[in-house]
Structure formats: structure tokens, C-alpha cells
Amino acid sequence: MEETSFAFLKRLIEAPSPSGFEQPIQRIVREELEERADNIKTDIHGNVIAEKNPEGRPRIMLAAHCDEVGFMVRYISDDGFIYFSSIGGVDAHVTTGQRVKIHTSSGPILGVIGKKPIHVLEEEEKKKVVELSKQWIDIGVSDKKEAEQIVKVGDPITFAVSLEMLQGNIAVARGFDDRMGTFIICEVLKSLFNLSFPAALFVASTVQEEVGLRGARTAAFSINPDIGIAVDADSASDFPDMDKKKEGDIRLGKGPVLSRGPNINPKVGELLVEIAEEKNIPYQIAGEPRATPTDANVIQINRSGVAAGIISVPVRYLHTPVEVISLEDVENAIELLKQFVLKVDAGEDFVPG
Fold first, then answer.
1. Is 164 within a domain?
2. Which of 251, 266, 338, 344 could form a disulfide with 238 if both were Cys (CB 3.0 to 4.6 A apart)?
3. Cα–Cα distance between 341 and 330 in angstroms, integer?
């Protein structure tokens, strides 16, 4: 990956963006795309929509949600400890002992999620997962009054980790799901900046996916696309304890994942496979036998219906502070989407035969 692209990805990943609090990352998206789009706007919901050739046909929407799972301050005790709830699905197994940042009106405040030391735990306590409602954050103050001068109920919270590289092109960070997808669709638009094509392209960095696919619903209504492709994360199954018979065989470094199933328009799905094979872009296939928990779910049923598709990047350890991806899969997803936009003809029919 080029140095400038990696720097952009790092900025996206390290911006705090729990569902409902996506403004910091959306400012980065607007800044990156303002010179590369014909038009760019932010809607009342907070979605950022960038347009290229908006009068073209067909109308193609590429959507990726920029929100991440996180937490919210719910209560401050008399001793100044902060109790919290999750924003989106967070596993209570992975939270205790973590450093976090509370994003206050005055800036981020470092805290730690405390836990009784193992020396004083009863045997039964060692076997139990501590419920999120019983976990607390220590910010190093002495009482409630001091805490309330810094932190307010309703402040969002994220894990205090950054983007780092493991071996080769394998990267680790919180929130690759799905700021990685936002990076992909932005890079697609940038790669098409000096190229002409018949389609109208709408790149939508959507909000609040983790709490009900909310941003994509309103963005799709506004854009009114003919074709809508969601770019998201798919759970890799190439690590211990994953049951491939249930989850499929999805591996890092083997290419983006193309889904088949009722949430995917057959002609869109077939065209993506055709392009991947024609351009020697590696890909994997996932079976999705029901409506997916992705933006494609609500895009497909927008207005009178949209020809929907999904391109996913394999991610290990979803919804933890240590999500792991291959940057090669990311680059191949960018290339596949770019070639898709260039391939679609103005009069192409995506009505299933």
C-alpha cells in the first residue's frame, strides 16, 4: 500500500467514531474527498455522500459505515468511578484490564477498565464473565465532584489502541469494522477521479450501522440508486476454534469476499465474479442464506428495490480491540470495485432473469 494511502487509513482508524458520534471521522472523509468529487454533502443524519458524474446512468451507490462499536458513560459513583454501557455489540470477555479514552467536550481523557486482582477472586468468580454493567472505568480522580468536572453522562468511549503492523502486510487495530470499508470506497472514488465512465457514482460513508443500519437507510433514500454495493467486514474463519462447517472457509490474504444469497442481486453478484476472474483479482465466496446485518440489507429494499451486492474484507477477532486484516485484501477490494464501476454500461439491466 502506498505511503499516502496508509496514512489516510491510519487517520480514519484512529479517529473516534462510536455510533452516533461519527463527526471526527466524517471530517476526515470530507477533507480527503473534497478535491476528488464533483459534489460532497453531509445529510441531517451525518452521512457523508460524495458524487462523481451524478447525471450518469445507472446510479451506483457504494456504502460503508464509518461507525465503530464502543461505550457510553451512564453513571458516576461517589468515589469517581465511571460505569458504562456498550454502543453496539461488545464482548464483555475482552473489556476488563483495557485502556480506554473517554471523548469529552474538552478532549479525550484516558481511563482504565478496572478489575479485582486474581489474588482476591473466589474460585467461582474466576469462572464468570463480569457483566458490562458491573465493570467500571478509573480515570484517577478521588470523588464524583472531581470526575464530573471532566466527564459527563453520555460521553462516548473507545478502546485506547492504534493501528499497528504485525508481520508482512497484516495489520491490527480496533474498528477495522468498518472504517476499513470507508477507506476502500474513498480510495475507489480517488482512483476514478481522472477517468470517464457512464455511471453516476455515489460514495456514502454511512453512520449508525452498528445500532440498526440507520445511516444507510436514509442515505439510500436520498441517493435513490439503481445498484447499491455495501463494503463491510466478514468474519475470517482461519484461526483456532472457528467452525468452518458453520462459518465457511474465509481466510486472510485470499482476496475480498463476494456473497451469494437473497440479499444479493444475482446479476450484480455474477458481474463481480466475472470481473474478478477477468482481471485476475483473487476472491472468496460466502453463502449468506438470509438478510445480512450489513448496509446492503436496507439498501436492497429502498423505495421500489435496488440491485444490491456485498464486498467484504476478512477480519479476525471482530468487535475486539485487536481486529486483524490483510492490507492486500483491502487493495484487491479497491481494484474490484473500481473495475465494477468502469464495467457497468448505461443501459445494463439488473432485473433477475
1. no
2. 251
3. 17
Preceding amide of 58 cis, omega within 30? yes
Per-residue pLDDT tens listing for the chain (353 residues): 999 999 999 999 999 999 999 999 999 999 999 999 999 999 999 999 999 999 999 999 999 999 999 999 999 999 999 999 999 999 999 999 999 999 999 999 999 999 888 898 888 888 899 999 999 999 999 999 999 999 999 999 999 999 999 999 999 999 999 999 999 999 999 999 999 999 999 999 999 999 999 999 999 999 999 999 999 999 999 999 999 999 999 999 999 999 999 999 999 999 999 999 999 999 999 999 999 999 999 999 999 999 999 999 999 999 999 999 999 999 999 999 999 999 999 888 899 98
Instruction: Judge contact between 89 and 235, C-beta under 8 A.
Output: no
Same-domain status, 51 and 141: no
DSSP secondary structure of 56-78: -SSEEEEEEE--B-EEEEEEE-T
Q: Which residues are part of the catalytic machinery? A: 209
User: What pTM was estimated for this model as a whole?
Assistant: 0.96
CB-count exposure of residue 217 (10 Å: 0-12, 13-18, 19+): buried
Last residue of a domain, one of 111, 133, 159: 159
Is 166 a member of any domain?
Answer: no
d(CA 162, CA 143): 30
Going 164 to 167 to 169 to 174, the CA torsion angle's sign is negative
Q: What three-state secondary structure class fits 210?
A: helix
Nearest to 186 by CA among 332, 311, 30, 18: 30
Whether residue 187 lies inside any domain: the answer is yes
Q: Tell me whether residue 351 is in a domain.
A: no
Domain range enclosing 144: 71-159
